Amino acid sequence: MQIGLVTYKPELVEGYDVHVYFCKWVDGQTFPAAKGMQNDVTVLCDAKAIRDDPSIVSVSKGGPALRRNRKLNFAFDFVCPTHPTYRKKVFDYLDSVAKEDAQGVTLNLYHFADQGFCTCPRCTDLFEKSGLGWTEWRAKTITDFLKEAKTHCKGKFAVEMFPDPVLAKERFGIDFAAIADLVDYFHVPLSSRDYFTNYWVDTIVRDFVAILKKPVVVELSAEMPTDEKMDALLRTVAYISRHNLMAVLLLVHDSENARQVARFAVHNEAFREWLKTHDFPKMQKIVDNWAKYY
Ligand SMILES: [Zn+2]
User: Fold this and answer.
1) Which of 41, 48, 113, 212 could pair covalently with 65 via S-S, beta carbons 3.0-4.6 A apart?
2) How distant, in Å, are the alpha carbons of 6, 133, 202, 203 from that of 191?
């Protein structure tokens, strides 16, 4: 199992095998792709694009897919997935990423906002003309979008997902079986402010490893300001290292944050003893490697 980073800074950090760089953000900011890294592109959540042209937002009977719509529980604002000019804008950006010497592209938030979306006139028309059921049409729309997006990408191609292994197709149009044919691996984000309670991480990881037909990497949040939080995070990484994962990725603010986690693990004798006593060979290997640098 590899250990890696998901980061907002395009910097390689010693002791980490995989580097994923956020080059297009949910607020609409875009940055030049990072050479030699996996570049993570937010696709349909784009607060700036929606501010500039509110007509592109995805809609439902319960209103628009916006954070300020309190009937819903959205963390981001969603563009309608069938909007032609917005799609073109995303593909143009992916073309710019493909021109750089990047390792590959990971797409995130490329799906419907939730079950009742999107009921805009264009989606309603496309759905009616398709002759398919609602769930099938939505899944096909997202799979076809990913197929087209992939033609604009170079290198390793991966997708994130809303981490629901059971209802992803019904809610978001994410058809894991169909998408498995397109991607090199799946990137499962399991963000949290802390991992003091971690049974849910182990459970969801287990479910995804069982159902996804391609390798799996899991992302955990590591923007940890306290020793207690870092300790809980590292023990959670140790537990999920028992599953068949390609990598665990730590979401950090910057390189110093990444070094702080590694340094904490290396110099935490109790933690290293705990790894030995309870048999976590994959995690031990990672910490032993960190000890060469930190
Ligand atoms: Zn729509």
Assistant:
1) 113
2) 11, 33, 13, 14
Q: Is the full-model pTM beyond 0.85?
A: yes
- Ligand 1 geometric centre to CA of 162 (Å): 19
Burial class (CB in 10 A: 0-12, 13-18, 19+), 90: buried
Distance 82 CA to ligand 1 centre (A): 6
pLDDT in tens, 39-98: 999 999 999 999 999 999 999 999 999 999 999 999 999 999 999 999 999 999 999 999
Start-to-end C-alpha separation, the chain: 20
Tell me the residue range of the domain where 211 lies: 2-293
Q: How far is the CA of 124 from the centre of ligand 1 (A)?
A: 7
With vertex at residue 34, the alpha carbon angle to CA 32 and CA 39, rounded to the nearest 5 degrees, is: 95
Q: Could you report the per-residue pLDDT of 87-133, keeping only the tens digit for each? A: 999 999 999 999 999 999 999 999 999 999 999 999 999 999 999 99
For ligand 1, the distance from its centroid to the CA atom of residue 178, given in whole angstroms, is 22
Q: Is the pLDDT of residue 224 over 90?
A: no
Alpha-carbon 180 to chain mean position: 15
Q: What is the CATH number of the domain that holds 9?
A: 3.20.20.80
